[in-house]
Amino acid sequence: MEKKPADQDQSFNREQDLTALAALSPFELKDQLIALASSDTERLMLNAGRGNPNFLATLPRRAFLALGDFAVSESERSYSYLDSGFGGLPEQQGMLGRFNAFVVNDPQRVGLPFLRSAVSYVHDRLGLNREVFLEEMVSAFLGCIYPTPPRVLPQTQEVLRAYLEQELLGGSAPAGTFDVFPTEGGTAAMSYVFSSLAVNGLLVPGDRIALATPIFSPYLEIPRLPDYGLEVVQLAMDESQDWQLPESELEKLLDPAVKVFCLVNPSNPPSSKQPQAVLDRLSRLVEKERPDLIIITDDVYATFADDFVSVFAACPRNTLCVYSFSKYFGATGWRLGTIALQQENVIDELLQSLPRSDKERLKARYSSLTTDVPGLKFIDRLVADSRSVALNHTAGLSGPQQLQMALFALNGLMDRLDRYQDAAKALVRGRYATLYRSMGVTPDPNPDDVGYYSLIDLQKVGGLLYGSAFRDWLTARPDLGLRFLLRLATETGVVLLPGEGFDVVAPSARVSLANLTDFEYRAIGAATRHILEDYHRTFLAGS
Q1: 15 within domain boundaries
Q2: Alpha-carbon distance 88 to 282, whole Å?
Q3: What range(s) does the Aminotransferase class I/classII large domain occupy (predicted)?
């Protein structure tokens, strides 16, 4: 790695350039950094900015392909007298017997034992009819009919409920039953939720929305869009307490002007889960003081945590839960997410208490769907709004996507030894240790840390390496984080994202521990150490 002089920063000293770059979303700044990092064609560019994992679950994908062969053969039965390549809708009657024969005739086919186990599992553990379940999966693979009902396929919803109960609710559902709406990834879920809350008059311009920060940057950006015009109230997690939400910050939720509270748990980018004590405090606050509060919890990294319990379990009546299969199963390209909402929930209650003018407006909006608009549940309004209401009948995630989602969920449900989960956890946590050792810092993870991302706190790392005086010197340079990222990209080809873009106060960089090799994380750690050494020389020179 070529050594550069400390005055390398001078190429970024034009304040207008720094100001313009600092105003960008971290994911837009990433593109600028990639351009700098790619400027040297002789050097490998390492992009640890975006969290797209470089690992994925193969068994449920094998099962998808194996089921596909059976599904196509079922389709071809309908018109077997016609030319090759012509099929019809599968016939449920006798399908289970034909499937069992299909499995027996190809015992070595990877994925078929998984499918046979899945058919057995859903009958024994979820009480589903084997043949009805199998027919839904076959039709879903073929994509030959509109998803019906539009919100979610019935058998698929039961599988998703069981999976979310296991992974997010500590293995047991809260009182009541929750509905599930599969979406085109967690980002679509976010978009749909904000849009429907606004359309239904539950969020209006000038309302306050509380955000547990640091947080995934779109949660900071969406409320400020002209479409919403919301006032953001930040609940700052305490870095010194492993990014827990202090009680003093939770008390900001007592303000009745705060209509919605959003958090990502485990957090992004600190990658720490909220412990049970915080969940208990939030539960008491909501129950006693703010029964009208709407909570949105984004639990996409939950499956990388140990013994995770969601806010959805602690405050079931008030919480709308977003989960994505993208990170854990390596399925960002599949676009698979879910929205879960208790059937008895505060949002539906708030709809009933809207002013008469709003109710009349909403009656006009949804009257093509039902004669009982006041009784239309919020989760069904989400589905309709996602297709501009008029196209509600063609809403819903595609059949093949719902099938792959169900197979991912079944993989989690049937992996009794947690082999995939343990491997995924060990992979990202091992990379965390490698990164920090390469900086010359002893890794010191907290039990609540997840490790999918890490925030490289430049002040903290600099202080550990060179002492408190150097740490204070770094602290006195407010644009240090951005300058560090620019140097890192230009000199070494390494791309990270700014912590500031996620509302991290200290100069820091977010590094994804999911998308590079162990060797490459050693290179990132060494590059970080190299630049800090350079800054330290400047500090010693009195500059």
Answers
A1: yes
A2: 53
A3: 203-521
Q: What is the DSSP letter of 323?
A: E
Does one domain contain both 163 and 223? Answer: yes
pLDDT tens per residue across span 50-71 = 789 999 999 999 999 999 999 9
Non-local (6+) Cβ contacts of 399 within 8 A are 139, 140, 141, 142, 143, 144, 145, 147, 153
What is the percentage of the chain residues whose pLDDT exceeds 70? 91
Does one domain contain both 65 and 39? no
Q: How far is CA 114 from CA 63, 156, 173, 305, in A?
A: 7, 16, 26, 25
Please tell me the distance from the alpha carbon of residue 259 to that of residue 263, in angstroms, as a whole number: 14
Q: How many Cβ atoms are within 10 Å of 319's Cβ, its own excluded?
A: 27
Instruction: Determine the Cα angle at 434 with ends 215 and 274, to 5°.
Output: 30
Q: What is the pLDDT of residue 43?
A: 57
Enclosing H/E stretch for 510: strand 508-512
Tell me the sheet residues that pair with 210.
233, 261
* Cβ within 8 Å of residue 244, ≥6 positions away: 237, 238, 272, 274, 275, 277, 278, 448
- pTM beyond 0.70, yes or no: yes
Token pair for 158:
């039961």
CA distance 422 to 417: 9
Count of residues in the chain:
543
- Is residue 403 in some structural domain? no
DSSP code, position 542: T
Same domain, 139 and 190: no
Domain tally, the chain:
3
Pairing between β-strand 294-298 and β-strand 319-324 as defined by DSSP bridges: parallel
Owner of token pair 């690992």: 55
301 touches 268 (CB < 8 A) = yes
Q: How far apart are CA 227 and CA 249, in angstroms?
A: 27
Q: Give the pair of three-digit tokens for residue 366.
A: 């949804």
Sheet containing 497-498, strands listed edge to edge, beginning at the edge strand earlier in sequence: 453-457, 508-512, 497-498
93, 114, 145 - which closes a domain: 145
CA dihedral 300, 303, 305, 306 (to 10 degrees): 150
Mean pLDDT, to the nearest integer, of 500-514?
A: 78
Reference 461, options 502, 499, 518; nearest CA is: 499
CA distance 438 to 432: 10
Rounded Cα distance between 126 and 97, Å, is 21
Say what angle helices 185-199 and 378-385 make with each other, to 10 degrees.
110
